[in-house]
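Late entry, written up from scratch paper. The run itself happened at the end of the previous shift, but nothing got recorded in the book at the time, so transcribing now.
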Amino acid sequence: MTAPTSTVQRVRRPRPLRWVILALAIVVAAVMLAPLLLLVLNAFKTGADYSAHGPLAWPTAFTLDSFTSYLQRVDYPRALVNSIVISGSVAVLAAGISLLSAYAIGIGKVRGSTALLAVFLLATMLPQEALIYPLFYGAQATGTFNTVWSVIIVFTVLQAAFGTYLLASVISTLPPGLLEAAALDGAGRWRILWSVVFPLMRPTLSVLMVFFFVWTWNEFYIPLILLSDQSVQTVPIALATLQGQNSIDITALNAGSLLSLLPTLVFFIIFQRTLSRGVTVGSIK
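Output as recorded:
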């Protein structure tokens, strides 16, 4: 016995608009991946191949000479460790400070909280060139110049300013009844923070830590001034040392750029679920 025609679900044919959107998405993805593809191709070329055929040609032979040249000129393992230590420390410290200060502003009912958040927002908008002189003399006065701590302290404060502004806005939207119920159960401010607020903010904090890590990893100007010693330089600074005054080894520069990019790609792949979960939870709230 067949079902009535009205109850039979008809298979929907793809609409032309969907195909257009899909084609546009493919074009945009190709445009975004094109620089990365050129970087990979030129990293595996020889200098003579690059000079003869240019940057857009397919390599005549894939070789690791550019990577060998880069590793001979730059102490990449040391720079990699320095970048990981600095970026990881800033991510953890800035997220922790952001949570504490945002909790005090968003729930503690601090007077002038709006003006205070405006100051934090303004701090994130200041150009680094305006800060470099006081930061340089401050690092010399405190004895942290040419140490990783000078950069860790600076970027912890700068990233925490943005984190405080963001988390305070989120914490202020938490249901007051939830916090009042915890207080009626005898929970103090610290207990409310770690047992109520922190679990709710964990996805957002995870996303902040990922962005703090990547942002700090890519910083160049302030570490270039505060870390003049080669033993404490980060990966972006070590990469800049390949650019001579009169000549540049393009293939070695591409190989170094690829090696500099790989840690952040691995980091994003590892924490991809954390980013997706944090964005999803934030949208549901």
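The CA atoms of residues 75 and 275 lie 32 Å apart.
(Scratch paper discarded after transcription.)
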